[in-house]
Amino acid sequence: MILTTTPTVQGREIRHYHGVVVGEAILGANIFKDIFASIRDIVGGRSAAYEQELAKAREIAFEELRERARAAGGNAVVGIDLDYEVVGPNGGMLMVSVSGTAVTI
């Protein structure tokens, strides 16, 4: 499965458009990770706990995108857009949304 943010795949012809496909993942960041992230924010540096959660959510969203593209009959997804959001009453959840157009090349 070819995944690209560009509207075409260089050197390949798009033979059929199957429509928009979306993959989403929402993961909660637990209280211990929040505490350690807060400490890291105070002293500076990167928060490995949040980076790991984002990576996990991104992997889930892309796998869901692939599955939906296959189900639609595509073998590639073009024009991919990747968005990150903090959701929930106190911003306690991380959402990754990936969308694009399933195509056959």
Automatic annotation (TrEMBL):
Family: Belongs to the UPF0145 family.
Matches recorded under NCBIfam families: PRK02877.1
Pfam families documented for this protein: YbjQ_1
InterPro entries per record: UPF0145_dom_sf, UPF0145_YbjQ-like
Gene3D superfamilies hit by this protein: Hypothetical protein apc22750. Chain B (3.30.110.70)
Superkingdom assignment: Bacteria
Signal peptide residue numbers: none
Annotated source species: Grimontia celer
Protein name: UPF0145 protein GCE9029_02036
